[in-house]
């Protein structure tokens, strides 16, 4: 049981009342419990924290407009939209295009384009991935995923966020976030190998320092083409 002191006319603590589960006859009813306003406040803070992330999905489920896609939309042929002219001036003639898989779902659209530049024995492989998030916000996870694959150099002037790494001078990789869109562009040198997979010697050295400049130019052109 709990003993609670009472005040008598402001003269100090003069009596105490014993609170039990069943009050004695004639005693006043116990006061009502205070309204749990602190709990309500905590709930409001929690709700506001998750509201932004859940709003997109909720609106989509309710037939609402969903997030603003910023003019981006699915593309019939990513390789055709990606001319990659700036890289061509560095890597040589564009020799072959592949056809990557595509995912077209109400929640996300993603397509992939593999491209080759130069001769097969000493050329370059270029891959481009375009992901359009139709419901969820990719922003909170973007930087963490870039760091996971060791892309730590921020690049200004392209999209909302962008990270780059030169891959030890053997190429380069870019990841760009622009609203609901993620675009990945990577460049790797191709090697002829022996039966054990060891690169054959005798390939001419190629200086790829500064490869981020033509990659940035091509990424900006691709982003513009994806909005047409």
What would your notes on this structure say?
The protein has 228 residues and is α+β, with helices and mostly antiparallel strands. The protein has two domains: 60 residues, no CATH class; 148 residues. It contains five helices and ten strands. The strands form two sheets. Strands 3, 4, 5, 6, 7, 8, 9 and 10 form an eight-stranded antiparallel beta sheet that branches. A two-stranded antiparallel sheet has the order 1-2. A hairpin with a 3-residue loop joins strand 4 and strand 5. The longest helix has 25 residues.
Please outline what is shown here.
The chain is an alpha+beta fold.
Count, helices: 5
The low-pLDDT segments are 1-21, 32-62
| Structural class designation | alpha+beta
Helix content percent band = 25-40%
Key features of this structure:
228 residues; alpha+beta; 8-stranded antiparallel sheet; two-stranded antiparallel ribbon; 5 helices; globular; disordered N terminus
Question: What topology does this entry show?
Answer:
Blueprint: E1 2-7, E2 13-19, H1 37-61, H2 78-81, H3 85-91, E3 94-97, E4 102-104, E5 108-117, E6 124-133, H4 139-148, E7 153-154, E8 161-165, E9 171-178, E10 181-189, H5 212-225
């Amino acid at each position: 049981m709990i003993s609670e002191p009472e005040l008598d006319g402001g003269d100090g603590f003069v009596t105490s009342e014993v609170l039990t589960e069943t009050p004695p006859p004639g005693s006043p009813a116990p006061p009502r419990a205070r309204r749990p306003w602190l709990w309500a406040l905590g709930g409001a803070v929690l709700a506001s924290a998750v509201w932004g992330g859940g709003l997109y999905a909720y609106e989509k489920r309710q037939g609402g407009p969903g997030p603003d896609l910023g003019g981006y939309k699915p593309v019939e042929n990513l390789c055709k939209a990606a001319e990659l002219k700036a890289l061509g001036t560095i890597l040589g003639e564009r020799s072959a295009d592949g056809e990557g898989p595509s995912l077209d779902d109400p929640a996300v659209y993603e397509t992939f384009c593999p491209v080759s530049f130069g001769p097969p024995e000493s050329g370059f492989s270029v891959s481009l991935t375009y992901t359009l998030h139709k419901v969820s916000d990719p922003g909170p996870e973007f930087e963490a995923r870039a760091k996971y694959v060791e892309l730590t150099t921020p690049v200004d002037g392209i999209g909302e966020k962008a990270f780059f790494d030169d891959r030890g001078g053997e190429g380069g990789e870019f990841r760009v976030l622009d609203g609901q869109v993620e675009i990945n562009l990577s460049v790797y040198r191709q090697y002829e190998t022996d039966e054990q997979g060891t690169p054959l010697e005798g390939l001419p050295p190629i200086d790829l320092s500064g490869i981020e400049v033509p990659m940035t130019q091509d990424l900006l052109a691709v982003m513009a083409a994806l909005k047409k």
